[in-house]
Amino acid sequence: MSKIDLSLACRAAGALTLSLLYTTAQAQRVEQRAEAAAALPLPAFLQAQPAAFEANWTPLRMPTQDRIALLGASYLVAMNEDWGVGPSFYGAAQGNYGGIFTVGFTAQRRGRLSPNLHWAASLYAGAGGGLSSDQVRFGGGLMLRPELSLRAEAGNWYYGVSAAHTRFPSGNVKGSSVGLVLGYSDGFMSYAPRDAGRRASSYKRSGLGFDEIALSVGRYKPHSSARNRSGTPSASMGKAGAVLRQYVTDGAWWGLEAAGAASGGADGYMEVLGTLGEDFALGSPRLRGGWHVAAGLGGGGDVDTGNGWLVKAGPTLRWKSPWGPSLHLDAGVMGAATGKFKSTFARFSLALPLDEAIGREGPFAEREGLVQTQAVYASLQHLPKVRFKNGREESIGHLAMVLTRDLGRHVYGTAQAGSAAFGSAGAYSFGLFGLGVQTQPWASLPGQPRVGVEALVGAAGGGGVAVAGGAVAQAEAWAQWSLGSEQRWRLRAGLGQWRSLRGETQASSLVNVSLGYAFGTLTR
Description:
Layout: H1 3-36, E1 46-61, E2 67-78, E3 83-94, E4 101-114, E5 117-129, E6 142-154, E7 157-167, E8 174-191, E9 199-202, E10 212-222, E11 237-247, E12 252-263, E13 270-281, E14 287-299, E15 309-320, E16 326-336, E17 342-353, E18 367-387, E19 393-406, E20 411-422, E21 429-439, E22 450-461, E23 471-483, E24 489-500, E25 507-523
Antiparallel strand pairs: 1-2, 1-8, 2-3, 3-4, 4-5, 5-6, 6-7, 7-8, 9-18, 10-11, 10-17, 11-12, 12-13, 13-14, 14-15, 15-16, 16-17, 18-19, 18-25, 19-20, 20-21, 21-22, 22-23, 23-24, 24-25
C-alpha cells in the first residue's frame, strides 16, 4: 500500500470516526428524550411490528485455497411471533476479492432459551458473484446460506456466534464456517395499505425509517497512479446510483448509498457504503454547505479495490426546494484501503422525500400528512435471449429486490437492485430506477387487481454480459393482486423488454413474477 493510499485512508477513517462519535452523542441525547416520551400513544391506525438490523461475519475458503470473509447485513421484520423476513446484502470484506457481492432475502426463525438468550435458524437466498476465473466459478450466481446461531442480549443489542454454510449451487464456491453475529432490535412502524389517502399524525417515523431517497449520477476521475487488476491505468468512470438518508437534525444525517458503473468500460463495478454528513445554512435556510464521509465495500469491473474496503470524503452543497425535493452536489476524494484504486469524484443528486422527516423538527414533534403506500418485492425475472461478450447467446434469470413508492393515486416511483441467479452469468448485477403509472379498473373484484406500466434506467454489468459502459433500460407492463385482509401481500406478474444503451446495443424480452409486502408511510 503506497504512502498516498495510507494517508488517504487514514484521513477519511479519522473523519469518519470523529463524525461517528458526534452522531453517537446526538443519538444518546435522542434516546434519553425517547425514554421520557415512551408513553406517547401511537396514532389510531399506526401499527408496530418487531424488527431487527443484523450484521454477520462469515469466513470462507475459495477454491484456490485463498481465505476471504463476507460481511452481511439484513433488515428483518417480524411476520408473527416466531418468523422474520427481510432484504439482505453480502460483500467480500477480507482477502483480495473485493467486488464479490450478492443481494437477496433472509427468512429467520427464532426461539427463546432464557430471558437474555435466544437461538435463530436462518436461510438466505440471493444472487451475485464477482472475480470469476477458470478456478473460481459462481455459475448462474445463485447463493444459498443456511445459518444456525446462538445470541446473548444486552438491552436492544444482541451478539453471538453462528455456524453457516455458504454455497453457489451451480458454481464451485462453497464452504462451512463459524462466524459472528451482531444485531439491534427495533420496531417497524407502518400503516395498512388500505389506509392510503387518509390523513394521519404521528410522533414516530414509519416504514423503513429513511427520510429521503436521492437518485444520483456522478463521475470518478482516477489518479494517474491508479491501476486496474489487469495492470492497466484506471480510466474515468461514470456511475449511477441512489442514497437513502435519515436526518438526525435539519442539517445532520446518516444513510446508505449504492452505485454502479454506467460508462467508461468498467461495467460490473459496484459499491455499497454507509455515509454520514452535516451541512449549515449559507445565508439562506434553503442553501446549505457542509461535509460528508463514507466507508463500505466496492469492486468489480476490473477495478482493483483489494479486499473491497473503500473510504471517501469531501464537501457537499444542498438546496432545499419549497415543494419537498432537494438538490445535492457532492465532491471529494476516495480510494481503496488495500487496492490500487484512488480517485477524485463529483456527484449530482435529486432527493425525494420518503417519510414526513420527523427528525428534522425534533424526534417527538407531531407531524401530519397523507398515508401513501410503499412496497418491497422479491422478484424473479427471466430474459430468454442475452448476448455475451464472447458472442454466445443464452437465457439468464435474475433475482432482484424491488421497491415502489406511490407518488399519487396513479403515479409511483420504483427502484430495483439485483443480480443473475440462473444461467451462466454469475456476477452480472444491476441497479435501476424509474417511474410508473397504475390503475384499478376492477377494484371490486377479489384481490382488488390493478394494472400498470413502468420504465427504468440505470447501470449494469459483470458476468460476461455485453453491456458496453454499463447503461441499461427496462420497460414493463404488469398486473397485480392483493392478498390478505390488510392487502399487505402483493403478487405481481409482468411482461417487458430489457436493453443496453451504449456501444453495440442489444435487447431481450422479459418475464417477471414478484411477491411483495406493502405498507403505508406518512407524507406531506
